[in-house]
Specification:
Blueprint: H1 21-29, E1 32-36, E2 41-43, E3 52-57, E4 59-65, E5 71-78, E6 82-83, H2 85-90, E7 97-100, E8 104-109, H3 111-120, H4 122-148, H5 151-162, E9 164-165, E10 173-175, H6 181-188, H7 192-204, E11 208-211, E12 214-217, H8 220-227
Helix pairs in contact: 3-4, 5-6, 5-8, 6-7
Length: about 240
């Protein structure tokens, strides 16, 4: 544990934005503050701990590793978010592993303090319920994709999800920095070699264009037509 710096505060966490400064300051002192290095595992799958973690700086990733060793990426967590709340609520073992993608600053709160805070502040409770509801919907969409879409369709859906609109050309979208093939494979539950093969084929077909520092989706309407009507895939960053 390191000494708390003034910038290391739960005021940066969206879940607590409705709380007054004095309560935030009190909660800050009830956390254990630490720093994680990039590629460090923060939580292991089926670990029995029940603490909740708040990501103050950095990026982390939620992953599931199968018995065969294949890793599935569920989502990335950015600064201001939190993880580990399920074990704090139901006392069960961890349902996923959490990996630090970059160096990160983390506040660790006991399950007791977390439950006390949530139940004492209706606004915090409502934010938590909305967050969990969003995660359930996201996982339901992922299950639907894994069971109904072919590998190329899953790859297109994920690329659209990761992309932002190209303001210079409304038919294009940009993924920057270009995604690592192993990460894409983890996101769509396939092998890295399969992703490489599909991207090469899509480039030959004029669907994507590789450039320095970015992967361009050349014809978004055509890509959307290939996977059907999926509103979530059209939610580009702007």
């Amino acid at each position: 544990m390191t000494t708390i710096r003034p910038s290391e505060t739960l005021a940066r966490v969206e879940l607590f934005h409705s709380l007054p400064p004095d309560i935030i300051a009190r909660l800050d002192t009830r956390c254990i503050w630490r720093r994680a290095r990039a590629k460090e595992w923060i939580i292991d799958y089926q670990d029995e701990s029940t603490d909740v973690f708040f990501l103050i700086t950095g990026v982390a990733r939620v992953m599931i590793r199968s018995i065969s060793g294949r890793e599935t990426i569920l989502r990335d967590i950015e600064a201001g978010a939190f993880f580990g709340e399920l074990a704090a609520i139901d006392g069960q073992t961890r349902s996923a592993s959490i990996l630090a993608i970059t160096d990160a600053t983390i506040a660790k709160m006991t399950a007791t303090t977390f439950i006390e805070t949530v139940t004492s502040h209706p606004d915090v409770s409502l934010r938590l319920l909305r967050f969990i509801t969003g995660q359930v919907r996201m996982l339901a969409n992922r299950v639907n994709e894994f069971t109904t879409l072919a590998i190329r369709e899953r790859l297109i859906t994920e690329l659209l999800r990761l992309s932002r609109a190209n303001r210079a050309d409304p038919r294009e979208a940009i993924v920057s920095p270009p995604p690592i093939h192993a990460d894409l494979a983890g996101r769509i539950s396939t092998r890295r070699e399969t992703v490489t093969k599909e991207l090469s084929a899509m480039e030959r077909e004029g669907l994507v264009r590789r450039g320095r520092g970015a992967l361009t989706l050349v014809d978004v309407p055509r890509l959307v037509a290939m996977i059907g009507d999926k509103e979530d895939a059209l939610d580009f960053k702007t």
